[in-house]
Design brief:
Distance between the termini: 52 Å
Radius of gyration: 21 Å
Order of helices and strands: HHHHHHHH
Number of strands: 0
Mean pLDDT: 89
Low-confidence stretches: none
Length: 270
Amino acid sequence: MEIIAYLIIFIFGASIGSFLNVVVYRLPAKISLIHPPSRCPKCFHPLGKTENIPILGWLWLKGKCRWCKTPISARYPFIESITGLLFLLIFSYFGLTFITLGYWLFISWLLALALIDLDTMTLPNKLTESGLILGLIFQSFNGWINSGITGLVHNLIWGIIAMAIGIWSLDLIGILGTIMFKKQAMGGGDPKLFAMIGVWIGWKALLISGFLACTIGTVVGLIGISLKQLGRFQHIPFGPFLALGALCSVFWSDIIITTYQQLFLNNLSF
């Protein structure tokens, strides 16, 4: 029964990943997410029911359109697989709880925003703002489940505080970077994404995710420059690093905070 449950969750996550592929492609292009149905971007032939099955549909078609033989990017089944695995990971970590349902929603927003930023160097307001509102609803309802109206108010207030910390901190970094480099150092969507992340995971985990994002982004940038794949002052999307930092914080922020506090207290006592 446990194996069947995991399989169902993976299939559900992969199906969400399939829809995320649609969002990532259509939202920046301002195409309806509902109409027309999924089709080949080259010959516009609608995909059949079996061709629309997550992961298996791509394998069945051998990575090519059945009608015009145009190659279909392997990114589609990859995103479906990653989403399914992340859904499984969250379920195994948090169990069958309201937290799990909320974080499934959260990572779906993170994946969509990260991929759109990779493709277009933009973070659509429709996603960051809706994700922020959903985060506030999630925190409020979670607080109500645990402590009634007191918990609801407490979580809502701290969610708003984390939102403010997120948007103000990245705005400040962007202003300082612009002054230092005499050119725009950060896009306007990054602070909104960081604010959204803060609402979902809280201000402590937000700071950790920001540190991880900056660290990973710096390492990737230095490697790209050393391999001559990136120019020294070339802009790279920061949204994927923020999303990755947030994802790491979902699972490990408590461990990181506890470890830091123990080390800090031990140093003080020494």
